[in-house]
Amino acid sequence: MSSAESIASARALRDEALAVFRGDLEIAKLEVSPGRVKERAVGEAVEMIDTAREIASENKAVIGATLAALFAWFLREPLQQAAGWIADRVGIGD
Questions:
Q1: Are 59 and 65 contacting, i.e. CB atoms less than 8 angstroms apart?
Q2: Helices (H), strands (E): how many in the chain?
Q3: Are 40 and 46 in contact (CB under 8 A)?
Q4: What is the rounded CA–CA span in Å between residue 11 and residue 48?
Q5: Once rounded to an integer, what is the mean pLDDT over residues 73-78?
Q6: Domains: count for the chain
Q7: Of 25, 29, 63, 64, which has the maximum CB count within 10 A?
Q8: pTM of the prediction?
């Protein structure tokens, strides 16, 4: 292969690689466009909500117990005061 042929072959490969790169760059630009990002975010959110609904429908007892525990945790001070008041009234702890 002569020098001119090798240069032409290298240029052809370069031009082909540049065309592939530009195509990939256009795809990347489309993927990071605000409309596409919003579309993907909404799609992911819908998928997560569907998954959460499915899990919630399968585990109602676990969710109920968790909510009750959270409720008791947030109201722990009034519950402790009420338990102390009841214990004083009943006479337990003497």
A1: no
A2: 4, 0
A3: no
A4: 49
A5: 93
A6: 2
A7: 63
A8: 0.45
CB 42 within 8 A of CB 48: no
Together in a domain, 78 and 39: no
For the record, the structure tokens of 34 come out as 């605000």
Q: Give the type of residue at 49.
A: I
- Could you tell me where the DSSP H helices lie in 32-94? 34-58, 60-74, 76-90
pLDDT digits (tens, 9 = 90+) for 38-70: 999 999 999 999 999 998 888 889 889 999 999
Domain that holds residue 2: 1-58
pLDDT tens track for 81-94:
998 888 888 876 55
DSSP 32: T
Does residue 65 sit in the same domain as residue 45?
no
Q: Note whether 47 and 12 are same-domain residues.
A: yes
